[in-house]
Amino acid sequence: MDDPWSKRVDFLVEVMVSFFEKQQSQKEAINALPLYPNEQIMWDESLVPSINYTGEGCLALPKLNLQFLTLHDYLLRNFNLFRLESTYEIREDIQEAVPHLLAYINNEGETAFRGWSRMAVPIRQFKITEVKQPNIGEVKPSFVTAEVTFSISSYRAQIRSEWNGLKEHDVLFLLCIRPSFVPLSADEAAKATVPQKLGLQYVRGCEIIEMRDEEGTLMNDFTGKIKRDEWKPPKGEMRTVTVALDTAQYHMDVTDIAEKGAEDVYSTFHVLMRRKPKENNFKAILESIRDLMNESCIVPDWLHDIFLGYGNPSAAQWTNMPDLLDTVDFKDTFLDADHVRECFSDYQLCFTNSDGTENLQPMPPFRIKLPRNLKGSTHALPGNEKSTIPSIINANMVDAISEREQLLVETYVPPDPGPYPQDQPKQNSVRFTPTQIGAIISGIQPGLTMVVGPPGTGKTDTAVQILNVLYHNCPSQRTLIITHSNQALNDLFEKIMQRDVPARYLLRLGQGEQELATDLDFSRQGRVNAMLVRRLELLSEVERLARSLQLPEDVGYTCETAGYFWLLHVYSRWEQFLAACAENQDKTTFVQDRFPFKEFFSNTPQPVFTGKSFEKDMRAAKGCFRHLKRMFQELEECRAFELLKSTIDRSNYLMTKQAKIVAMTCTHAALKRKDFLQLGFKYDNLLMEESAQILEIETFIPMLLQRQEDGYARLKRCILIGDHHQLPPVVKNMAFQKYSHMDQSLFTRFVRLGIPYIELNAQGRARPSMARLYNWRYRDLGDLPYVKEEAIFHRANAGFSYEYQLVDVPDYHGRGETAPSPWFYQNVGEAEYIVSVYMYMRLLGYPASKISILTTYNGQKLLIRDVIARRCLPYDFIGSPNKVTTVDKFQGQQNDFILLSLVRTRFVGHLRDVRRLVVAMSRARLGLYIFCRRSLFEQCYELQPTFQLLLQRPDLLALNMNEVIPFTDRHVEDTGSIHVVSGLEEMESIVNYKMYQAHMMGDQFSAYSGQVAPSIGAPEQKRLHNLAFGNNSMDTSAPALANGAHEYMKPDAGSDEVSNMEAPANQNEDILPESHSTDEADMVVSTDDKNAMVLESSSNNDTKTGE
Question: Would you say 763 and 771 are in contact if contact means Cβ atoms under 8 Å apart?
Answer without folding.
Answer: yes
